[in-house]
Design a protein that fits this description.
single chain, alpha/beta, Rossmann fold, Arc Repressor Mutant, subunit A, two-stranded antiparallel ribbon, 15 helices, 11 strands, elongated
């Protein structure tokens, strides 16, 4: 990208965004010609050079929208970022993608459900896109990273591609860099403000043909992302949740309005879901365990209640619960057990 310096001079100039940038390039024909018309001081030029040098030293790459590596679905969007920064495996951006988002305050069963879906997409060579927030985003990224390979997931950041947020996800950040990629439209080192997260959500929605919404409050960033996806004409799915839980209002509302299809699992997307096959085989092994798991759903159920439902003592079902948990079919959470 021989004209990177000129392109960055333009897009980093205050009051020049994607719309004005595109207008200038169309008007003058190329970045160099645009820069010739601008009054660019030495201090600003030095700042751009420092950014480029820092990026080079830290294995951060720039991709402009005239490059083959620029994500095709993102490029199709009006006012897309003319340049993005990438850290990690840039080949990930060539893959088909699915976006998965949801609340930061997801339930254990909600995160487990999302992680399983993400894993199956990765197993089918589809990269999982999310925003690296705690909760649902983390579950989506980690579910994809269960699958061997070096191009399984994409994290879209609101700050610079080197700015790790939240700090709790630092280890996840480096794992994504190693086995996927993180991307941003902002300068390296940039510390985000609230409006940057809204724009980040727009790109999360735009990168993929399909968006899956997990648990989400009605007024949340995840719902904003879903609305962007709907506006873009993307295929939107929502995972239904309990109507008394505020985290179910987002997906349930989209399903009721017809703006999203109801997502009941990986079978909605793949004829043979590898996780489901494993679970079916495990369920066939033991009638006692099978009877027990039938009583466990998305709402936590205590051992004492389960014992009453299967007409056994708590001590009698403990061994079966341990087996089911080891098989990855259930998980112990506050209040009892939930099914995965």
């Amino acid at each position: 990208m021989s004209d990177l310096f000129e392109k960055l001079l333009i897009i980093r100039t205050p009051k020049i965004g994607p719309v004005r940038y595109a207008q200038l390039i169309e008007q003058f024909g190329c970045a160099a010609a645009v820069v010739e018309t601008m009054d660019v001081g030495a201090e600003f030029r030095d700042a751009i050079m420092r950014e480029i040098d820092f990026a080079h030293q830290n294995n951060i790459h720039y991709i402009s929208d005239d490059c083959d590596l620029y994500p095709a679905r993102l490029k199709d969007l009006k006012n897309h970022p003319p340049i993005i920064t990438v850290r990690g495996n840039m080949d990930t951006l060539k893959k088909q993608m699915v976006s998965i988002v949801g609340t930061r305050h997801a339930t254990a069963s909600g995160m487990g459900f999302v992680a399983d879906i993400a894993q199956n997409f990765a197993e089918n060579d589809i990269a999982v896109v999310s925003g690296m927030a705690i909760g649902t985003d983390t579950a989506a990224h980690r579910g994809a990273l269960r699958v061997a390979g070096n191009s399984q997931t994409v994290a879209v950041l609101a700050g610079g591609v080197d700015y790790i947020w939240p700090l709790e996800n630092e280890s996840l950040y480096w794992e994504i860099v190693e086995r996927g990629c993180v991307i941003s439209e902002m300068p390296v080192g940039f510390v985000p403000v609230a409006t940057n997260f809204i724009q980040r959500n727009r790109w999360v929605a735009g990168l993929s043909d399909t968006l899956i919404l997990g648990e989400a409050d009605l007024k949340s960033g995840s719902m904003t992302t879903a609305r962007f996806a709907i506006d873009f004409g993307r295929d939107v799915w929502a995972i239904p949740s309990h109507p008394t839980d505020s985290r179910g209002l987002g997906p349930n509302t989209l399903i009721r309005s017809g703006d999203a299809k109801m997502c009941l699992g990986v079978s909605d997307f793949f004829k043979t879901a590898k996780n489901d096959v494993k679970k079916i085989k495990s369920l066939e092994k033991n009638d006692s365990e099978n009877n027990l798991i039938d009583k466990i759903g998305n709402i936590p159920v205590s051992e004492s209640v389960l014992a009453q439902l299967v007409k056994k003592s708590v001590s009698e079902i403990k061994a079966d619960l341990v087996v089911l948990e080891l098989q990855g079919l259930i998980r112990k959470v506050d209040g009892g057990y939930v099914r995965l």
